[in-house]
Amino acid sequence: MKITFKVQRQQGNGDRHWQNYALEVDAQATVLDCLNQIKWQQDGSLAFRKNCRNAICGSCALRVNDRPVLACKESIKNLEQWLTDSNQENTGIFTISPLGNLPVIKDLVANMDKFFAGLDAVYPYLINKHQRENGSEFPQSPEQRAALNDVSNCVLCGVCYSDCDAKKKNDNFVGPHALAKAHRLVLDNRE
C-alpha cells in the first residue's frame, strides 16, 4: 500500500518544518519499520530514537497524527483502524512528530531530562528501613504483588507525559509517570 509520512523536522530550537516521504509498505509494517525505511532508503539525516527490540522498551515513543504511540508496536493497519474508530478521514498521510511537553533535540528526538528529573523528584526506589534479623527477603503474597501489576508495568516511554495537560499548565508538575512510580511504592508492603 502507498502511504505518506509527513515528518516534523527541527534542529534544536530552530525553525520547525514538515517533510513528506512517500512509502510503499505492507499494512502490517510498524511506524518504526517505516521510519527505518525512510532512513535507510530515502534520507539518512532523519533522527529518531530506537532501542526497541533491544530490551530497552519505550525509547521509540513519538506522536502519530497528534497521538502518542510506541513506534515499534503501532502498525499502519492499527493506525488506519484508529482513524476509522475516531471518525477521522484516512487520507494515507500520517503526521509524525516528537513527544509533547519536551524540548526537541533534533527531528523526532526529544530531550528527556525534565522527564527523568520529575521521576527523580519522587525518589522512586524501594527503601527498606527495616533489616530482617536473619537477612532473608521480605515476603510478598501473590495478592500483594498483584496490587502492584498496573503501576509496575510502566516502561518510562514518556507517552503519558507527552499528553499530560497538567504538565502543559504547570511546568513544576513532576508528571504522571512520577506519580505512578510513587504510587507503586505506596502500595508496596515492603516499603
> Into which percent range does the helicity of residues fall?
25-40%
Ranges where pLDDT stays below 50 over 5 or more residues in a row are none
Structural class assignment: alpha+beta
What's the end-to-end separation, in Å?
A: 52 Å
- Rg result: 20 Å
| Spatial strand sequence of the major β-sheet | 2-1-5-3-4
Task: Quote the average pLDDT.
Answer: 90
Q: How many strand segments?
A: 7
Number of helices: 8
Order of helices and strands: EEHEEHEEEHHHHHH
Strand residue content: 15-25%
Shape: elongated
Tell me the major beta sheet.
Answer: 5 strands, mixed
Can you put this structure into words, describing what you see?
By secondary structure, the protein is of the alpha+beta class. 31% of the residues lie in helices and 18% in strands. It has eight helices and seven strands. It has helices at residues 31-41, 76-85, 113-121, 142-146, 149-152, 159-162, 165-169, 176-187; strands at residues 2-9, 17-24, 61-64, 67-70, 93-97, 104-106, 109-110. The relative contact order is 0.16.
Give a quick rundown of the structure.
With 191 residues, the chain is of the alpha+beta class.
Keywords:
191 residues, alpha+beta, 5-stranded mixed beta sheet, 31% helix
Write the layout of secondary structure elements.
Blueprint: E1 2-9, E2 17-24, H1 31-41, E3 61-64, E4 67-70, H2 76-85, E5 93-97, E6 104-106, E7 109-110, H3 113-121, H4 142-146, H5 149-152, H6 159-162, H7 165-169, H8 176-187
Parallel strand pairs: 1-5
Antiparallel strand pairs: 1-2, 3-4, 3-5, 6-7
